[in-house]
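In this supplementary section we document a worked example of the pipeline. Step one takes a protein sequence of length 624 as its only input; no multiple sequence alignment statistics are reported here. Step two produces a three-dimensional model, which step three serialises into structure tokens for compact storage. The input and output of this example are shown verbatim.
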Amino acid sequence: MLQNIRDNSQGWIAKTIIGVIVALMAFTGFDAIVNSTSNSRNAADVNGEKITLDTLNRAVEMQRRQFIQQFGKDFDASQLDEKMLRDSALNSLIERNLLLQGAEDAGLAFSQAALDQIILQMPVFQQDGQFNAAVFDMVIRQQGYGRMEFRERLQQDVLISQLQAGLVGSSFLTDAEVDAFVGLEKQTRDFATLTLHADTKAVKLTDEDVKAYYDEHTDRFMTPEQVVLEYVELKKDAFFDRVEVKDDELQALYQKEIAGLSEQRHAAHILLEVNDKLSDDEAKAQLEEVKKRLDSGEDFAKLAKEVSQDPGSAASGGDLGYAGQGVYDPAFEQALYALKDGEVSAPVRSEFGWHLIKLLGVQAADVPSFGSMKEKLVRELKAPRVEQRFVEATKELEDAAFEASDLAQPAQEQGLTVKVTPAFGREGGSEGITANRQVVQTAFSNEVLESASNSGAIELDPDTVVVIRVKEHKKPELMPFEQVVAGIRETLTLQQANAAVKAKGAELLSSLREGKTPVEQAQEQDWKVVEAANRSQEGVEPVVLQALFRMPKPSADGKPTFSGVSLNNGDYVLLRLNGVSQQNATLSEEERNMYRRFLASRVGQQDFNAFRAELKDKAKIERF
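The serialised model returned by step three reads:
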């Protein structure tokens, strides 16, 4: 066979193939072939900037996660239209790129230092009111980001916000526009409603109707796709008992720890500030006089209350409490540590002014015993070695899983147990590793799901990794008709009842508009009257209010206008607008400014939307 191929490749077959390739390249263009290859990992091109498939896949996954968070753990994400998700995510990415290009064209920028401050101040990354790096890493990992990726995303968000704020903030309105809006806002309407209730008891369904619906909508009655996983879990803590430390290492670390401990000194002071009212020499001279009074026997605390200009300590007699070295100004600290217990210094100059310092007491350093610190010292010494061993074991587990056809051998080599999860779908489970989005995403990936391969090491948190394998793949199946018949009957009954009451309402509405007044429906007691209703009237369905304020005013001869609206519960409401009252309210300057800001923001948002549309219209966008 191979020899035949070699022989034929020298003859007319090879020449024919080459000829076809040359003709194809001449017809489509060499650039098209090159571009097809180069764009194999891209989803779109926006004015020359690529959107990669990896970026799109991450955006799709984030959208899926948002749906799950919005609708709860019972939401079946497998029912989402994948094409719809991808189209929506790609449209968002294209618009984001256009806005970033618009921000760049506008010369907007944001420094890395300012970005650091935003991250440090974000409450989601704080613990006990302080930024916590571990919390930061955990939160962004749950969102699918690394540190650099998150910073880049946040910087882009800030630039887009700057662009939007600039456009929105540049809008303005005249007094006439504000007054016109306020007039409409404060308008009230007199109206009445007649509610027609959907009657489910009047609906007659046959078994054939129900079965026909089932047959026509089989896609709605599929069981969710699910998997059952096998997995092995590697924990960092398991390696602490496998790492040894020597006594001399512990002793050396103990001595290093206690070497940094120092005595605490209890200080009090009298401060005179140097300013435009009191020169440096005058402040020093005044403190020298105070020192003489102290030397003559006056009480330091009383003089501090009388003379000191330190608002934080004067009221308490200048008492600063206990503190160790490195807390005070260097000159202040040098003078304090030169004093004996109860002694008062000569005037001392610091960056805050001139001080008299008194040493109230000395507290010896509290040196903990070796025994009390041993457990802490052991963990400190073991931590880097455990980390290294954990990394090595993770690599060994990943390599073994890659070469194995199941998880039994890799588990045995690491002394681990193969565990099994309950079944879960693409939305993930409620607990354990099935609630981890990276695990779920990996479980339903082609490599693990379709190829039946072991996964790579998945980091659940900095101290835990897992390797997974699909034990069972439960594909969607059509649920038996008997299992869903009750639900179908209820759905069809509601649909037909709603359709019937809507048709009846539309018929009555047409009759009322034409001036025909059916006695059985138009009697005054059948209508619920509401007078002087505003746009946020309590006790009225929002959808009814929206329809009401869209209705034209009654005619000049006082004849009411009519409309109708369907409610979410299936009922149909007839609306009769009897009158409109326009109020010319006098606004205070504060109220006028409030309305102006609100309207300017709304107009500015419209300007921003127009700007986005213009960017899109002028852009060169190519989807692959």
